[in-house]
Amino acid sequence: MTLHNNLKERLTKKPILLMTHLVLGYPSLATNREVICQMAENGVDCIELQIPFSEPMADGPVILKANQKALAGGITVEDCFAFAEEMAREFPEVNFLFMTYYNIVFRFGLADFIARTAEIGLKGFIIPDLPPEEGEEYLHLAAEKNMAAIMFFTPTSTDERMADVAGQGSGFIYCVARRGVTGEHTEMDAQLDGYLARCRKATELPLAVGFGIASRDDIAMLEGKADMAVIGTATIKLVDREGAAAVGPFIRGLAHS
Amino acid sequence: MKKGYFGQWGGAFIPEVLYQTFADLKVAYETARADQSFWQEYVDLMANYSCRPTPLTFAENLSNHLGGARIYIKREDLNHTGAHKANNVMGQGLLVQRMGKKRVIAETGAGQHGVATATMAARFGFECTIYMGEEDVARQRPNVFWMEKLGSTVVPVTDGSRTLKDAINEAFRDWVTRMDDTHYVLGTACGPHPFPEMVSWFQSIIGIEARKQIVAQHGKMPDRVYACVGGGSNAMGVFQGFLDESDVELVGVEAGGKGIHTDEHASRMVGDRAAPGVAQGYKTMFLQDEDGQMLDTHSIAAGLDYVGISPILADLGEKGRVRFEAATDEEVLEALTLTMRTEGIIPALESSHAFVQAIKEAPGMSRDQAIIINMSGRGDKDIFTIAHAFDDPSWKEFIIERAEMYNKQ
Questions:
Q1: Taking the model in full, what pTM does it have?
Q2: Averaged over B205-231, what is the pLDDT?
Q3: Which of A68, A153, A155 comes nearest B159 by C-beta?
Q4: Catalytic residue among A45, A48, A218, A227
């Protein structure tokens, strides 16, 4: 089943889905494992596994530091593949995606990277510095392997651009809620409503909304306007502060109305 | 070929949030480029504000000393703020004015581009923020002093290796937050399209002048043109004057640091530490490991201490149009000393890399041959860096005495 259909099916059972994110190797793969276990047990629908990169241009300070510390801890791309394979096997009910920057993919070899990711049971890719104009071969190869190539909408995207981008992506659309980098809070206001309405009009694909979402209230505001809430920086901060065990209650709290 | 590509290099690997910003920038750039009056406005501004055309100085003593080719020095050091960086920032300043933006941001390594941008912002009345690696802020206090005095805000970048590439990442993070009123004045011929092409266009003023000047003084084309290569903007600037003359050999000199066979250098085209990659918005040869993580670089010259190279130069190198060499830190100080003693000219440490290779090759050439060295910047204003590089005892004594004096106050 494609990721798109998988998400559609899930949406028949709950009003809004949840996608979480973590940086592989931060603070360690052992902690990542615990965190993922708690996320899976509490019904998270998708998990972004970020393969660290030394130049994470689109990420804010929290994820940036996590990238650096993971690399300083010696994590390799090979470690990430092995770990992702283990997670996909252990938690088949979760849709795992690789999130990373294009140089990691390019250096590994685009075709090999896509083939290997498909082989180990992941569902797709989020590559923020690979716009469709530069990703023709990527889009083609991902489609061939039935893997989702996640595209982005942003508040600066025109309607025309949204339609163009959506036509080239698959799985779902990652709607960036505001200008800026990851981790800063977004106010849920009329402007955001208008933006999400434009997003909805531009595509049939499910809409995931991210950047700075941290509470049940944030998610409640999104219901009916988007299909999936993305929790990124908030869980990283939580694990830093309270350890992996705090993730379960946090996710449960988000899901509760 | 796809727009913004030079052979297999270049492109625009930008986050979606900047799509519209780049679309607008491309239109502004292409419109300016097609408008002859824009270039004239630029040339007039540089003549009035930045001593252009800069001279092409015949280095007679150095030529005689080496006993080979006639050596000419293109004096980009005589630009306002002391380096070729002024060309790019003033050009982009005119463009920002056209686009109606009110705020500029820039990255800087050693601080040259930061000072140049701060100067431009003061002149045009823009608000200005400069991102600079924390380590560079500590090493380059005099430049930080001037940026602040010129009215700019200097933000130390505490992430990554805390040097130039990290300052670039941070400038991009600012830009994705405030793209509506802000232009990012990228300092070299790197980054996403249209920056490599646009920066090279502004810098082409060097080559246009040099070509006229060498013909006037030497009666014909030079045999070789030397330029140091960090990001590659000064090299692109001078090389463009001679690209269509296939008999003119173009030589780019990279930072060999402590030796090309060590881990401490910043040579992308010479040596085997670099590989094709995509980072900071463009595809080029990057110093990186097998996983694609960028490596730490080293050079005595902060302006050459960078992981990537202009995609245009990567292409010209691959096609064999530009020959690349590397100069070590040690060779750089020798060339700097010789140039000061024979000509009374003080090249920046960056520019001294070009002198190294020219000095190596000139003796093997004949007297009726000519070479041009692009002296991208002046060294005297980097007295702290150069005195430190020479490990000069009397300078150290002066600094210690001055520190003691401040301590007593």
A1: 0.96
A2: 98
A3: A68
A4: A48
- Classified as helix, coil or strand, A28 is coil
Does A103 contact B at CB distance below 8 Å? yes
Question: What are B37-75's pLDDT values in tens digits?
Answer: 999 999 999 999 999 999 999 999 999 999 999 999 999
Say yes or no: domain A3-255 is CATH 2.60.40.10.
no
| A55 closest CB neighbour out of B16, B169, B275 | B169
Question: What whole-number distance in Å separates Cα of residue B249 and Cα of residue B370?
Answer: 11
In which residue ranges of chain B is CATH 3.40.50.1100 found? 5-47+83-195, 52-82+203-388
The answer to whether the beta carbons of residues B165 and B307 sit under 8 Å apart is: yes
Contacts of A175 in chain B (CB under 8 A): none
In chain B, which residue's Cα lies nearest the Cα of A52? B293
Q: Sign of torsion, CA B212 B213 B218 B221?
A: negative
Three-state DSSP class for residue B95 = helix
**Model confidence pLDDT, tens digit, residues A144-160:** 999 999 999 999 999 99
- Contact residues, chain B to chain A, C-beta under 8 Å: 11-21, 159-160, 165, 169, 172-173, 176-179, 275-281, 286, 288, 290-294
Spatial contact of B263 and B177, defined as CB atoms under 8 Å apart: no
Closest CA to A96 of A26, A22, A165: A22
| Pairwise CB contact (< 8 Å): A129 & B13 | yes
Do residues A149 and A138 touch, judged by C-beta distance below 8 A?
yes
CATH topology of domain B52-82+203-388: Rossmann fold (3.40.50)
Average pLDDT over residues B300-315: 94
CATH code at B5-47+83-195? 3.40.50.1100
- Sort residue B103 into left (φ over 0), alpha (ψ -120 to 50) or beta: beta
Chain B residues within an 8 Å CB radius of A151: 16
Q: Which residue of B has its CA nearest to A176?
A: B17
Q: Which residues of chain B neighbour A131 with C-beta distances below 8 Å?
A: 12-16, 19
Q: Are strands B249-257 and A124-126 parallel, antiparallel or unpaired?
A: unpaired
pLDDT band at residue B249 under the 50/70/90 scheme:
very high
The reply to whether residue B15 touches residue A58, judged by beta carbons under 8 angstroms, is: yes
Closest CB to B176 among A53, A104, A180: A180
Distance of alpha carbon B402 from its chain centroid, rounded? Answer: 32
